[in-house]
Amino acid sequence: TQLLEQSPQFLSIQEGENLTVYCNSSSVFSSLQWYRQEPGEGPVLLVTVVTGGEVKKLKRLTFQFGDARKDSSLHITAAQPGDTGLYLCAGPNVNTDKLIFGTGTRLQVFP
Amino acid sequence: DAGVIQSPRHEVTEMGQEVTLRCKPISGHDYLFWYRQTMMRGLELLIYFNNNVPIDDSGMPEDRFSAKMPNASFSTLKIQPSEPRDSAVYFCASSPSGRSGNTIYFGEGSWLTVV
Lengths: 111, 115
Known about the structure:
The complex is a heterodimer. By secondary structure, chain A is an all-beta fold.
């Protein structure tokens, strides 16, 4: 069974701090996606990474796909209260192609 | 453009009652997904449709759960009879393609509480 474990589970920081959240698996994924879910809303796609070692930037967010395509990280520079939410990684099951979601990291950024 | 539209947004019902959740996917999207989200289990795929046909319902927890998609613009998820452990947020989502790496667009969710 392919699993995606995210860490940390919870993170509370002050505005302006930097942070990194991780998405790890023992299985290889053809691609990984990162979603952000704000309170009371559905998840919204932030990025898709498809190549081992790939780095993508979205303003203050930097996403990296591991060389072996088993893990990914999301780094946020100078976090803002608007970054508050649940961050989910997701990848397709190798056999069924169904999207598997990670356990999530709940981020709170205080002003 | 309208996104995925779900109703009701919130539902509180008594144990044993029938619950029907509704979804209108984004026009032109061939795939429709029903997910359930809880603190304990995270986001789980219940069932998905391709061109109105159910493809995989292996995530449906029990026979009490059923889903239909009578046409390209409407789907329902029904729970009968409902139980307190069904309390969760139910998301409908749609995608233009079922290929991995494609964007899945989620609705705002239906918050179900069974007392």
